[in-house]
Amino acid sequence: MTTRSLISIVIPVRNGAAPIARCLDSIMALDYPAGQREVVVVDNGSTDGTAATARTYPVTVVSHPQAGVARARNAGIRASQGEIVAFIDADCVAEKDWLRELLNGADNPTVGCFVGPIAALDTRRLVARWVKDRELISQERLLSSHPAVAATGNIAYRKAVFDAIGVFDEEMIAAEDGDLFWRMIRSDRFLVRYNRKARVRHAHPDRVVPLLRRAFTEGRGLALFRLKHRGDLSRRLTSLSCAAAGLAEIIAGTLLCPGRIARNLLQRKPAAQGIAYPLLDKAYSICRSSGVCYQLARRACD
């Protein structure tokens, strides 16, 4: 990016005093000129010391007490002054050259969105390692899916995109980032640039219960995404009966887990991985599919 205008970095956070400090430490260490960037932290109704922690840094802190990450990101957009708005999650750590690499190609005004990879911050715990190995938070996997989507943990949009297609849908309890990205793609007005050197590191879930809660919420968001964009998808993806049949098939498939575990052990895979991975695979799939069914059932009852 040869002609530098102000870039806004928006970070939504709720009850994350420790993660926001770690994230902001990395933002302050960026090799991008401080005078050419602003940082907007949106405190989304925290009840701990998150806002106080953020105010110890040279950033703008916006209070938005109504819970919802889409609402928080939109509040950040409204408070931002930059021509381009970069998003990073509070549980992410940016590498020193993150913003500079993310904006590579920004001199081309037809590029409306810049996406960078999301790597794992710490994989010492088995659950976090499983998340990494299964590529659950992988921009490459999301971008190659259909419909193509991208996570807002490492992304930047021109303000012109919001002017053209709107901002994050505040009715989405999850998958609001994929919804915005797909709406931009469907508009056929902007190009997307993937800058693989613009890396952030994300604190993957490292405990089973938070992981499965996340899976259920992701399933609900996926159902809302499918319903909103049903015209771009197969009808079976918005069918409650098809979703319920899929869930039943996944549950029935748990009978195969002992055999899979036995094969893993016979292949001399590490015991923790050979036993835990198949169980996590099944538990995650059940929770995610349950979230899809729950949301489709709620919509059917409306």
TrEMBL record:
Keywords assigned by UniProt, alphabetized: Transferase
Domain Glycosyltransferase 2-like span(s) in chain numbering: 8-165
An MF annotation (GO) of this entry: transferase activity
Top-rank taxon: Bacteria
InterPro entries found in the cross-reference section: Glyco_trans_2-like (IPR001173), Glycosyltransf_2 (IPR050834), Nucleotide-diphossugar_trans (IPR029044)
Full protein name: Glycosyl transferase
Organism, scientific name: Candidatus Methylomirabilis lanthanidiphila
